[in-house]
Amino acid sequence: MERGSSYPFRGKSPKIADTAFIAPGARLIGDVEVADRASVWFNCVLRGDVCHIRIGARSNIQDGTVIHVNSGDFPTLVGEDVLVGHKVMLHGCEIQDRSFVGMSAVIMDECVVETGAMVAAGAFLPPGKIARKDELWAGWPAKPIRTLTDRERAMIAGGAKHYAELAAEYRAQQG
Q1: Widest distance between CA atoms in the chain
Q2: Phi then psi for 80, rounded to 5 degrees?
Q3: H or E element at residue 174
Q4: In what helix (H) or strand (E) does residue 68 lie, and over which residues does it extend?
Q5: What is the pLDDT of residue 53?
Q6: What residues form DSSP beta bridges with 48?
Q7: How many CB atoms lie within 10 A of CB 76?
Q8: Alpha helices per DSSP H over 5-149
Q9: Which residues lie across from 28 on neighbouring strands?
Q10: What is the reported pTM?
Q11: How many C-beta neighbours within 10 Å does residue 32 have?
């Protein structure tokens, strides 16, 4: 199995840790960095053409996700041990450590998902919103609806560990 494709742009090339997993079909363009044991899954696009994208250690960017930036002003930063669900759109935002973004969610410019926060599947976080620590945000547009349960916090921690292990298994099969 071959790794996804990386493309230089404006003199910057993606930097991928040796222990990261980049699935076939993923595309990383320009100023993108993927840290140790992080994973970028099938058919994702990370386009750091006009600002930078950083993916922290053991975080996972699941299938079909698109990550972009705002021209020069707002990079997209994904912290450590973050779960980013399938078909998510991240644009010029910050997703802090040990947080969760559910499937098909959209997180826009200048948004922050704080450490330990969760954005529900299908939610839309409009520009400038901050999902605070331990809050669950849901809806279109998203609003805080309650505090996370202990079970949800454990799911985030377990999910990040699971994806790091799964990515290692895929890497081993790549040879």
Answers
A1: 45
A2: -90, 145
A3: helix 150-174
A4: strand 66-68
A5: 98
A6: 30
A7: 25
A8: none
A9: 6, 46
A10: 0.94
A11: 27
> For the chain, how far is it from start to end, CA to CA, in angstroms?
8
pLDDT tens, N- to C-terminus, the chain (175 residues): 346 688 999 999 999 999 999 999 999 999 999 999 999 999 999 999 999 999 999 999 999 999 999 887 899 999 999 999 999 999 999 999 999 999 999 999 999 999 999 999 999 999 999 999 999 999 999 999 999 999 999 999 899 999 999 999 998 987 6
The residue assigned the tokens 């230089």 is: 8
- Amino acid, res. 36: D
Instruction: Judge whether 98 and 116 are in contact, CB under 8 Å.
Output: yes
What are the structural domains, with CATH classification, of the chain?
5-174 (2.160.10.10)
d(CA 161, CA 155): 10
Q: What is the β-pairing status of strands 5-7 and 27-34?
A: parallel
13, burial (CB in 10 Å: exposed 0-12, middle 13-18, buried 19+): middle
Residue 47 in tokens: 């386009």
Q: How many CA atoms lie within 13 A of 85 on its CB side?
A: 16
Which residue in 120, 47, 58, 29 sits closest to 90, CA to CA? 47
